[in-house]
Design goal:
With 630 residues, the chain is α+β, with helices and mostly antiparallel strands. The N and C termini lie far apart (102 Å). The protein is elongated, with a radius of gyration of 48 Å. The chain contains 19 helices and 22 strands. Helix 14 runs antiparallel to helix 15 and helix 15 packs across helix 19. The protein folds into five domains: 124 residues, Beta-Lactamase (2-Layer Sandwich), CATH 3.30.450.20; 127 residues, PAS domain (Beta-Lactamase, 2-Layer Sandwich); 120 residues, 2-Layer Sandwich (Beta-Lactamase), CATH 3.30.450.20; 65 residues; 150 residues, Histidine kinase-like ATPase, C-terminal domain (Heat Shock Protein 90, 2-Layer Sandwich), CATH 3.30.565.10. The strands form five sheets. The chain has a five-stranded antiparallel sheet with strand order 2-1-5-4-3. The chain has a five-stranded antiparallel sheet with strand order 7-6-10-9-8, with helices on both faces. Strand 3 and strand 4 form a beta hairpin.
């Protein structure tokens, strides 16, 4: 037989021996791989697979998957990791399952040559059925009575009819009463001794649950002892099975929790005082555990955001009260949970119940809590700074406007200086030349050329002053809107014939009309200014190129003017600022202009509820399109 065969044979022998044990056994390697598991282990943890299927799997994954069986899953997982990390044997540790069962866990590291090569886990199931020997020995057994009667906790044994079979002295100290109650129910006992104590519904339900389902149940009750004092007990019901596996007896034992209740009551009073104090402050307070499950919101928080309690508890976690889109807040929060620091400040803008936004400063702190789950509390305090932010924003707006005004003032001074100085210099120069030509009797034709230069510059200055006055009237609200129905085609032709047939450089404006003409009301003065400004620019910025075009297109709901030129174009980054005062394209060079004409155009288009759009490519021309609804 080869080595593998011998190994398999020995393993089968070992499995046979370990499977005969009444304890649940699992052995894993140092890499957390399951090396052996017996059938009892599968039975205790209700695993539907055979042990052979589990062997070779990752036990760490199995721990997480089976943690839901336990009353405290996170504690179960944490404790296993803690024992493995310590590498120290542990025995007799009690753990509780959700179905009422309890287990005793033993852990032993397997050490070879001073090195941990594996981990051995043994689970012993605690059931009252293991105590059937007491049942067989009878409840009159003097030794049994001597032990149980000297225990400080009340212990009672019932039959399935709720009749007392045994009562120790801690439950009823009076021997006569204790003898009387045997074979009787609690109701009969109370009636005989005139004790006005109705049977507790919770107690009755727990008894029935234990009897029917064979599980451990527990409840709390308050009674008046023989000295007339209130005593609080936590009572457990254990089922006792007979040889045919039926449940015919219930063992009850009680733990006096009066002192714990008093301590808990004191803590509760202290908590209530703290809560009342927190409810009196104006700041918003929210408290949650490290799973972000909310345990407390103060009144300021609830009132501001209309949070209603359901059965005096809060549903949901912190995401229900602080939106997940508040990335900065949760980034700080998760950093704090990761242990990067214990206190973080920040700011967020949170909407209250009427959708009004409130600016809040927040401080998040992590508070350690001594509990078996080793969880911490997260305390977040929010201070309303909406008014302070409003003042801050107003100051920033004032500073911004002051800066814009200074920039506008500088642009205006520079523009006025350029637009006035150049024409005045030309006028002055031409006037001097004319004087010299008149002194030397030069012919009129030569003098007229310089006179025309003067007139041209005077016209340029007049246009500039008219633009300044127009902006002033617009800002003062002195421009009236007077629409009237006029034939737009006739109106455009009159403008073209008077000013652009030809233009100063002998180019002609081409006009194209598409669609069927439709009369609609418009302000003739405003539309004339719009067209003349855009057409003048089209000629001015396309010098030495082919003639610009004016396209009119009638659609069902609006008229579109498109002024097309084939000139220098506009940079993309300059387009957005063209409709602000004194702003021009960065590539205009020495081409004259004030930077305020398009501001007037935009205003007049808005008066007609229209819109302006620009398409341009540097050195390939520009298209200004204006849409005005009928």
């Amino acid at each position: 037989m080869n080595t593998t065969g011998i190994y398999q044979l020995e393993r089968q022998k070992l499995s046979g021996i370990l499977n005969s044990f009444s304890d649940a056994i699992l052995f894993e390697s140092s890499e957390r791989v399951v090396e052996f598991v017996n059938e009892k282990f599968c039975s205790v943890f209700k695993i539907k697979f055979a042990p052979d299927v589990i062997i070779g799997s990752n036990y760490e994954d199995g721990v997480i998957a089976s943690s839901f069986l336990f009353k405290n899953p996170s504690r179960f997982i944490y404790r296993i990791e803690e024992m493995i990390e310590s590498g120290n044997p542990c025995s007799g540790e009690e753990i509780f399952l959700r179905d009422g069962r309890s287990l005793i866990r033993d852990y032993s590291p397997v050490i070879v040559n001073n090195k941990i090569t594996g981990h051995l886990w043994v689970y012993k199931e605690i059931t009252i059925s293991t105590s059937t020997n007491l049942q067989n020995s009878g409840f009159n057994n003097a030794f049994f009575e001597q032990i149980v009667n000297n225990l400080p906790s009340p212990i009672v044994v019932f039959n399935s009819e709720k009749e007392y079979l045994f009562v120790n002295k801690a439950a009823i100290n009076d021997d006569e009463k204790r003898m009387f109650i045997m074979g009787k129910t609690e109701v009969q006992y109370n009636q005989h001794y005139n004790i006005p104590t109705p049977e507790s519904i919770v107690k009755s339900n727990c008894f029935s649950n234990t009897l029917i389902n064979g599980i451990l149940t527990q409840f709390e009750e308050s009674v008046i002892n023989e000295y007339g004092k209130f005593v609080h007990y936590k009572t457990f019901f254990f089922p006792i099975r007979s040889f045919n596996n039926s449940i015919d007896k219930i063992v009850s034992y009680s733990i006096d929790i009066t002192e714990q209740k008093a301590i808990l009551s004191g803590f509760q009073q202290l908590i209530t005082q703290y809560q009342n104090a927190l409810n009196r402050v104006k700041d918003l307070v929210i408290i949650a555990n490290d799973n972000l499950e909310v345990s407390f919101l103060n009144d300021a928080f609830k009132n501001l955001y209309s949070i209603e309690l359901i059965n005096d508890t809060f549903e949901g976690n912190m995401f229900a009260h602080i939106p997940i889109k508040e990335y900065s807040f949760y980034s700080h929060l998760f950093g704090l949970l990761a242990g990067k620091n214990n206190n973080i400040d920040g700011r967020l803008n949170l909407a209250e119940k009427n959708n009004k936004k409130n600016w809040l400063n927040y401080n998040i702190s992590k508070v350690a809590v001594n509990n078996e789950n080793k969880q911490s509390s997260i305390v977040a305090v929010f201070n309303d700074i909406t008014s302070e932010v409003a003042v801050e924003e107003n100051l920033l707006e004032v500073v911004k406007r002051e800066k814009e005004l200074n920039e506008l003032k500088s642009a205006f001074v520079n523009m006025v200086s350029h637009e006035m100085r150049t024409p005045l210099a030309i006028i002055s120069s031409c006037a001097e030349i004319i004087q010299m030509m008149l002194a030397n009797d030069k012919p009129k034709e030569e003098i007229d050329n310089y006179a025309n230069h003067i007139l041209s510059e005077v016209e340029r200055m007049t246009t500039f002053m008219n633009d300044i006055l127009m902006i002033s009237k617009i800002e003062a609200g002195k421009i009236e809107f007077n629409p009237e129905e006029v034939s737009l085609i006739e109106f455009v032709n009159s403008i073209v014939n008077s000013s652009y047939s030809p233009w100063k450089d002998n180019r002609h404006l081409e006009v194209e009309v598409k669609g069927r003409e439709r009369l609609f009301p418009f302000d003739a003065k405003m539309v004339r200014h719009i067209l003349q400004n855009l057409i003048d620019n089209a000629f001015k910025y396309s010098s030495q190129n082919k003639s610009p075009k004016l396209r009119l297109r009638y659609s069902k709901t609006y008229i579109t003017f498109s002024i097309v030129d084939f000139g220098i174009g506009i940079y993309k980054e300059d387009i957005a600022k063209l409709f602000t005062s004194f702003s021009r394209g960065s590539n205009v060079a020495n081409i004259p202009g004030t930077g305020i004409g398009l501001v007037v155009v935009k205003y007049f288009v808005n008066q007609h509820n229209g819109s302006v759009s620009i398409k341009s490519k540097v050195n390939n021309g520009t298209i200004f399109s204006i849409k005005i609804p009928y």
